[in-house]
Amino acid sequence: MSALTWLLVALAGGAGAVARLGAGEWVTRRAPRDFPWGTFAVNQAGACALGALVGAGPSARMAVVAGAGFLGAFTTFSTWMLEADRLDEARRPGAAGAYVVLSVVAGVAAFLIGRAATGGTLF
After folding, report:
1. Which contacts qualify for 102-106: CB closer than 8 Å, 24 or more apart?
2. Could you state, in chain order, the average pLDDT of each consecutive group of 10 residues for the chain (123 residues)?
3. What is the pLDDT of residue 121?
4. Run of H or E including 107
5. CA separation (Å) from 4 to 7, 71, 117?
């Protein structure tokens, strides 16, 4: 990769992290507090956006900058796992399991919908 691509990924990653913080907090302030809705919503939005990006058939540089840079920083695997662990530690193993399974199933569906919305195949 060129130095310019690395720079663009870094800038897009910073923007994605800031967008994730803002979007997650916006959802969290409006949602019930008994479930990590902020992270769930951000991860689903990111999966849908990645599907749309893939469906649009971007250039290699755009795929890396937008996909790995912005959306990689926008979505968050580590926070998802931390919140599942916190639900389990709060003696809510059913909620923790549901959160993990729902996140995966909804994430795949969101990706497929995003891809189909930009001309890619649904399956």
Report:
1. 102/40, 103/40, 103/43, 103/44, 106/40, 106/44, 106/47
2. 96 98 97 95 98 95 97 96 97 97 98 92 72
3. 74
4. helix 93-117
5. 5, 18, 30
* Whole-number pLDDT of residue 119: 87
B/e letters for 20-40, b = 16+ CB within 10 Å, e = fewer, are: beebbeebbeeeeeebbbbbb
Nearest CA among 28, 72, 23, 77 for reference residue 85? 77
**Coil, strand, or helix at residue 35?**
coil
Q: Which residue type sits at 9?
A: V
| Identity at 53, one-letter amino acid code | L
Cα-based torsion angle of the residue sequence 83, 41, 75, 78 in order, rounded to the nearest 10 degrees: 10
